[in-house]
């Protein structure tokens, strides 16, 4: 089974957690895309009644094109469940997110969610975080200096590019990816990044997730945290 098929399988499976009347957070990325397609199918074919909040322009456009009823985050009173992808999940259930550059809005939506579900294929499950470059969303003003500071810490930074230009996120910021190889202590690194001026948000999601659905060759595994 290809990685894409595993993503589709797990994306579809996750929608079973959605019930009538829920406010649902729709994540971003290629796995979440399958989940959004399945939400739309259930609305159309089964009459599922939900309101959704999106985590990126990309997902907003997809949801609009599929006629999923949408509201802005500030128009809802909390979110019942958010279903999102992840780039890496450690044995301690810390995660790296932001491969799709949507980490800031994803973290804000997750912060107001009563239940967080991540959908991944089995390649995302790791012992320690860090092989996947850690995305840091930064304010453009002074970001070259911040980049040099990351360099001086030995964090191997790279600006995320969109062609020849620095990528601009939905929030109007840049992303600097840190090529760390291995993150021994995600909590310590998160605390350091939280205290750095110019850093808007980082891609470490510290033990936020409630349920991880892992698409594997032999089916979907459910890991409840
Ligand atoms: C976007 C994300 C994505 O959820 C993450 O990159 C996983 O994406 P995919 O399902 O395409 O592998 O965090 O910012």
Secondary structure elements and their pairing?
Blueprint (H helix, E strand, L loop, with lengths): L2 H12 L8 E4 L3 H17 L4 E4 L2 H9 L15 E4 L3 E2 L5 E2 L6 H9 L4 E6 L12 E5 L4 H10 L4 E3 L1 E2 L2 E2 L7 E5 L7 H9 L4 E4 L1 E2 L5 E6 L2 E6 L1
Helix pairs in contact: 1-2
The structure holds ribulose-5-phosphate (5RP).
Ribulose-5-phosphate binds next to α2 and α4.
Features:
about 220 residues; alpha/beta; Rossmann fold; Alpha-Beta Plaits; 2 domains; 6-stranded mixed β-sheet; 4-stranded antiparallel β-sheet; 6 helices; globular; binds ribulose-5-phosphate
Q: Summary?
A:
By secondary structure, the chain is of the alpha/beta class. It has helices spanning 3-14, 30-46, 57-65, 103-111, 143-152, 186-194; strands spanning 23-26, 51-54, 81-84, 88-89, 95-96, 116-121, 134-138, 157-159, 161-162, 165-166, 174-178, 199-202, 204-205, 211-216, 219-224.
Describe the overall structure.
It is built from six helices and 15 strands. It is an alpha/beta fold. The chain has two domains: 134 residues, Rossmann fold, CATH 3.40.50.1360; 69 residues, Alpha-Beta Plaits (2-Layer Sandwich), CATH 3.30.70.260. The strands form four sheets. It has a six-stranded mixed beta sheet, with helices on both faces. A four-stranded antiparallel beta sheet has the order 8-11-7-12, covered by helices on one side. Strands 4-5-13 form a three-stranded antiparallel beta sheet, with helices on one face. Ribulose-5-phosphate (5RP) binds next to α2 and α4.
């Amino acid at each position: 089974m290809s990685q894409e098929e595993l993503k589709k399988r797990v994306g579809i499976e996750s929608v079973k957690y959605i019930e009538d009347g829920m406010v649902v957070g729709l994540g971003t990325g290629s796995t979440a895309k399958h989940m959004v397609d399945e939400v739309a199918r259930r609305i159309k074919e089964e009459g599922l009644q939900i309101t959704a909040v999106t985590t990126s322009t990309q997902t907003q456009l997809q949801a609009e094109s599929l006629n999923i009823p949408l509201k802005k985050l500030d128009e809802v009173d909390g979110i019942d469940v958010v279903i999102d992808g992840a780039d890496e999940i450690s044995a301690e259930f810390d995660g790296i997110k932001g491969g799709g550059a949507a980490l800031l809005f994803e973290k804000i939506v997750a912060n107001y969610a009563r239940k967080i579900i991540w959908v991944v294929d089995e390649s995302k499950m790791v012992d320690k975080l860090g092989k996947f470059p850690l995305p840091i969303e930064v304010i453009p003003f002074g970001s070259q200096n911040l980049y040099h500071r990351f360099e001086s810490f030995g964090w191997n930074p790279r600006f995320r590019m969109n062609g020849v230009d620095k990528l601009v996120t939905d929030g109007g910021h840049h992303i600097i990816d840190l090529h760390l190889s291995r993150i021994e202590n995600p909590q310590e690194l998160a605390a350091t990044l939280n205290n750095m001026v110019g850093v808007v948000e980082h891609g470490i999601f510290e033990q936020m997730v409630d349920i991880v659905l892992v698409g594997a060759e032999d089916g979907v595994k459910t890991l409840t945290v």
